[in-house]
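Handout, section B. The chain below has 144 residues.
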Amino acid sequence: MRANDAWESLLAAHAALFRQFNGHREIWADLSMKEYDVLYTLSKCPAPVSLSELNRHVLLSQPAMSRMVDRLAGRGLVARNADPEDGRGVHLSLTGPGRELQRRIGRQHARDVAGAMTSALTQDELRQLAAICRKLADATEKNN
């Protein structure tokens, strides 16, 4: 029962924060939060990644991810390059404009996140939350 209560609390907090952040439309320019998530994930990759690798880090179905990458590439924010080892494969990376847009939105979003988190949690609670979430993510990755 405690596990289910904790899970429901985690989901409720995520949903409330997602609604709050999504409500600040001035931050997102003409991107959705999911599109930003793709740009952010690519910005953390040290080298171009495959669509399947990107899909492991973004919560979208593979077909939805493909369509989103197509839209972002069409807007000049994501580059699609042939995989040098597999001619059928594609590697994805941010373009210059994609990286600039991610950074601009990211700076604003980071301030928004920090404000929401620090208004509700102490510094000690933030450390505890980060440690608990890392522990849960690591344990889940090991089991998959």
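Note. The chain has seven helices and three strands. Compare this with the example in section A.
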